[in-house]
Design a protein that fits this description.
It contains three helices and no strands. By secondary structure, the chain is an all-alpha fold.
Length: 49
């Protein structure tokens, strides 16, 4: 499965991947940040009131 090019350029996905890379390199608290960022990216533009 590959993320479409248009989605790859969206800020939320770039942040999620950056945190995922940090988590892989450093571990620790970055795992939590990566998880949160990935969940936000997967949920897309869903805004909560």
């Amino acid at each position: 499965m590959k993320l479409p090019e248009a989605d790859q350029q969206r800020e939320r996905w770039q942040v999620a991947i950056a945190h995922l890379i940090k988590a892989a390199e450093i571990g620790g608290g970055w795992m939590t940040f990566a998880e949160i960022a990935l969940l936000r990216a997967l949920n897309g533009d869903d805004a909560r009131a």
